[in-house]
């Protein structure tokens, strides 16, 4: 049973939307089944449609707007089989961390940055693509068979509109194929319980400016931008026992920030969540004060973008974050600058305790960060280095504590990389750490920015830094 349309709760107060009975969760989608398919060419079928969808799925799985080339990214128009581009969308890699789009208004396309184009029927040339032309929807199903009975197309609308609402409870429903599954801009005390949100063209839950959001025992999957999104600010949110998967990884690379994206704000808790397969960050709690990220699993992030993290924070205005990152498992963050836990941009007042970080490029990275405590973490299998310290101006990194951690180097990776400035020795205090390494000659790398960088062995690290007096390497001091 599917409610077709947007459930309008805009500005409403104290409404509960709940499935009752034993027939399974009721569904909401602002779309419709598309029927009447006829063969067009090869494996491509078409059917009449009265709108241009933002999201098309076959048998419940999203297919991609037709695009060229079929895999990212193009750097020229060489090999492009048509010059018909007017009205198409250019999707481009603005830098290693940001994807942007623009609509083409002529048949030329800017090729100065890596790009693909989408939205024209001629681009539909492989399985898993759709396009609209002349009032018909064209689909090449993933299995090449007729789409009849299997296609759902959604208009540009939300599943539930709870903007400016107060005290709304969404319990035990499914929301699929919407722009935002739930739009809850500047809402108060929205509760999303036992709810499944899938195939969102923008966000699973758009909750920017919200206060008191609760998401519990729910799932958000196949979201093109952000799973749970408090972009401008989010205050008093509690996200627990919830999974967020496939964010920014549906079809071709799309503009995406994080599985859970909290911009500014305070007093948020994220506990016992699972965030898997994110195009950019797994969880971003940027400039969030008095917030905690605990007992959660972040597996596979930075799938399409770079200079990003499993768990990301920063404090551009240098306000004390009082952020707790505790008891999490962070793994498989493998882009060229894929970081497990990233304290960026003057992050300060962060406690990173009792986390397990493995199979990253850099496990824990501090950029211009100060007054942070890094304790009791277990770090294994980093691609290049376990902990990176980088500052733009001498003195920015200071007064951090790195104690009681276990760092295991199994592939010759360095434990610390520190650059640049005259204050490297006061980046942190280090002690009571347990190190193991198969190559103790490359323990740390230091660079003051003026003379040549140095590689320090375990013993030369201890004498250079005067630190780690009670720490052990391969079982001995
Ligand atoms: Ca194509």
TrEMBL record:
Residues 156-298 form the Right handed beta helix domain. InterPro entries: Beta_helix (IPR039448), Para_beta_helix_rpt-2 (IPR022441), PbH1 (IPR006626), Pectin_lyas_fold (IPR012334), Pectin_lyase_fold/virulence (IPR011050). This is Right handed beta helix domain-containing protein. It comes from Massilia horti.
């Amino acid at each position: 049973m599917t409610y077709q349309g947007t459930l309008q709760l805009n500005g409403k107060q104290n409404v509960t939307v709940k499935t009752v009975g034993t027939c399974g969760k009721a569904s909401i989608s602002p779309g419709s089944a598309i029927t009447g398919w006829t063969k067009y060419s090869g494996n491509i079928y078409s059917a009449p449609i009265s709108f241009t969808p933002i999201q098309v799925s076959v048998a419940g799985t999203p297919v991609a707007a037709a695009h060229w080339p079929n895999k990212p990214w193009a750097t020229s128009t060489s090999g492009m089989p048509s010059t018909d581009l007017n009205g198409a969308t250019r999707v481009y890699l603005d830098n290693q961390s940001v994807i942007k789009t623009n609509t083409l208004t002529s048949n030329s396309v800017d090729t100065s940055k890596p790009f693909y184009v989408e939205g024209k029927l001629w681009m539909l040339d492989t399985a898993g693509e759709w396009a609209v032309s002349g009032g018909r929807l064209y689909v090449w199903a993933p299995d090449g068979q007729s789409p009849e009975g299997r296609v759902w197309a959604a208009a540009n609308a939300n599943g539930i509109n709870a903007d400016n609402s107060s005290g709304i409870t969404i319990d035990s429903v499914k929301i699929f194929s919407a722009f935002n599954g739930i739009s809850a801009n500047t809402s108060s005390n929205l509760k999303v319980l036992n709810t499944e949100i899938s195939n969102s063209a923008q966000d699973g839950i758009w909750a920017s400016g919200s206060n008191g959001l609760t998401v519990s025992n729910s799932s958000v999957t196949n979201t093109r931008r952000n799973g749970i999104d408090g972009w401008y600010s989010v205050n008093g949110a509690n996200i627990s026992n919830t999974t967020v998967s496939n964010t920014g990884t549906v079809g071709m690379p799309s503009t995406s920030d994080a599985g859970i994206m909290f911009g500014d704000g305070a007093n948020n808790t994220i506990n016992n969540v699972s965030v898997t397969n994110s195009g950019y960050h797994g969880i971003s709690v940027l400039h969030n004060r008095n917030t905690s990220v605990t007992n959660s699993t972040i597996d596979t992030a930075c799938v399409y973008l770079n200079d990003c993290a499993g768990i990301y924070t920063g404090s551009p205005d240098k306000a004390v974050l009082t952020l707790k990152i505790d008891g999490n498992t962070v793994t498989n963050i493998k882009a060229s600058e894929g970081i497990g836990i990233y304290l960026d941009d003057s992050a300060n007042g962060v406690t990173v305790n009792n986390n397990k970080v493995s199979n990253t490029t850099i496990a824990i990275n501090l950029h211009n960060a100060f007054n942070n405590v890094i304790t009791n973490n277990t770090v294994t299998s980093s691609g290049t280095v376990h902990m990176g310290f980088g500052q733009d101006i001498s003195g920015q990194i200071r007064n951090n504590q790195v104690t009681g951690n276990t760092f295991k180097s199994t592939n010759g990776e360095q434990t610390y990389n520190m650059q640049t400035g005259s204050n490297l020795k006061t980046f942190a205090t280090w002690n009571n750490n347990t190190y193991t390494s198969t190559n103790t000659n490359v323990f740390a790398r230091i660079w003051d920015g003026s003379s040549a960088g140095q590689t320090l062995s375990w013993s030369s690290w201890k004498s250079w830094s005067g630190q780690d007096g009670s720490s052990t390497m391969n079982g001995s001091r």
